[in-house]
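Handout, page 2. Input:
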Amino acid sequence: MPARSTYHCDLAWLGGDHAVAEVTIEIDDDRIVAVTPGSAAPPEAIRLRGLTLPGLANAHSHAFHRALRGRTHGGVGSFWTWRDQMYGLAGRLDPDSYHRLARATFAEMAMAGVTCVGEFHYLHHQPDGTPYRDPNVVGQALVAAAADAGVRITLLDTCYLRGGIDQAPEPVQRRFSDVVVDRWVERADAMVGWRSPHVRIGAAVHSVRAVDPDSIAEVAGWASLRGVPLHAHVSEQPAENHACVEAYALTPTELLSERGALDAHFTAVHATHLTEHDVRLLQTHRSSVCMCPTTERDLADGIGPTAALADAEVPLALGTDSHAVIDLFEEARAIELDERLASLVRGTHTVDSLLAAATADGHRSLGWADAGRITVGHVADLVTVRLDSVRTAGTSPAHALATVVFAATAADVDHVIVGGRPVVRDGAHLYVDVAAELAAAITAVWREAT
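Output:
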């Protein structure tokens, strides 16, 4: 396909609370070079029928969790019992099988309109904790998987040192652990050069349970020096809060703040059980929060304080985390609908704020400030959603945004362009037979487990 291309959208979201009709978008290489609303379709333009959005950002993913879908949802339990099942899967993957699984998972995301994924990566070593000959071979497999699937990636390489506060890693956790933070720094330094038009490298603190306070400061300093994103699981369960307060007389957010982790590049993932002071700290430091509602409800974690975060103007991003489903529209509407259940009030979050969480704010949390908006100079990511499916039929231009946020699903995504390159057309991935590859990759993982 030529470097320069032109698209004409029936409707497009250019920001604000309404869609704009008849928008021509010109792309040169991987950037948008012109956006013309209210224009007739140029003869050479490719027509995008439906509602065209900026690319969606999946700001929190553990790709290997996709193999758990349908296998962990029954029975009585909690996050902690689910975690044991997840550990069992983690112990069975190698770089090759993880690449196959991640490629198929990222391709499923592309079909759902995701053009950039934040992969929270901590499956670093061999199952017994011995580093591979190349200590970043699994990270390389994930970056290659994203490229094969046609999506951009921010690899959030995760520092994971211990099994819990003042606890050595359990045997199944050894492959996650670099043991000491200096080894994590050495690995992370080796990845800095991987940056490309489709790849960013960021950092993550797994949690205050898995990283001691001095090492949190070390990771935060590494990220700050390089101006890259820093993410952390924060206050996902009450037990995490209780343990942190007991050990340090601080909540997880307070501890991260004290150790220099909170700034405009920081994203607290989940943030389900924040205190009022935690919210103020995130506000003061201009940090973000990534909510993953489908995972948080699947694991019975609770409903996060999204009204308080909205009042404090803390930016929200969205993630699919454990991939119980991969559907950013479901994540977006869950922010508002879960808040309605918790507060008995409708309309805490506007349609355009939910779309921003799925697009610009999610990209920003992953270090892509130049993506997530249909505007000149930004990365040329476009996602077109059908307005004639059984879920969306009958809408009008005035109600198209609300229809997509509150009724559409990933199955309504029709066309996806990532960095100027078509990846999904007429609902089908152009380079990956996604269903077949998911089936093969997941079946192989579980077959090898027997």
